[in-house]
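Input structure tokens:
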């Protein structure tokens, strides 16, 4: 256990229960913020990889054709 962790535990022991609950809420907020930041970074990396493929954008007709093809595969059992 690090010195900071030991300091935190000692400080937490001296707080009333309602303040400990506030600390827990804050720690959970920080963890969620880190998770969102990591997800945003992964999304940015994924978008950069997609952009690097230089594929032409799909229009509505292309999308509809893809959907219909996948549905047909699923109906005939080829998509399994």
């Amino acid at each position: 256990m690090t010195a900071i962790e030991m300091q935190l535990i000692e400080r937490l022991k001296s707080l009333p229960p309602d303040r400990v609950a506030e600390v827990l809420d804050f720690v959970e907020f920080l963890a969620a913020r880190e998770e969102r930041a990591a997800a945003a970074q992964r999304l940015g990396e994924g978008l950069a990889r997609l952009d690097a493929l230089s594929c032409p954008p799909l229009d509505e007709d292309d999308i509809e054709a893809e959907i219909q093809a996948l549905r047909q595969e699923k109906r005939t059992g080829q998509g399994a």
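The longest helix spans residues 17-52. The mean pLDDT is 94.
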